[in-house]
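pipeline stage [seq->struct] | target=(diamondback moth) hypothetical protein | organism=Plutella xylostella | residues=124
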Amino acid sequence: MKASNACRGELSCIGNYSLTGRRLGRGHFARVEEATHRLLAKKVAIKIIDVSCIEEEYARRHLHREPRVMARLRHPCIAALYETLTVTPPRGPRLMHLHRYIDRLHIIIYLHINTQVLRCTYPH
């Protein structure tokens, strides 16, 4: 999917969440930012999809499919989806997916433990 070049508006707050300024990842038309709930002080990962950057109509039509599928999944290797939001700042609409925040150390430990379990359970 293509992203147009003139689309990277900045946000500092989304609903009850304040962006920390730490980017966790990015793609053609979305980025993932670390944020903190202002009342609960709980970290989340927010996938910010810039809808105006998506040039293909079929991609725009199917944007809401991902959160519907994510909401049904319960697996330790998939960060849980907490909620979705839509905001319309001056630079165009954004779709937000708020996920459980998992820091790198927890991912490395989890993968190390579960890789060993898989080797024991399913020998080659």
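stage status: PASS
auto-comment: Strands lie at 13-14, 17-26, 30-37, 43-50, 81-87, 94-100. The chain is about 25% helix and 35% strand.
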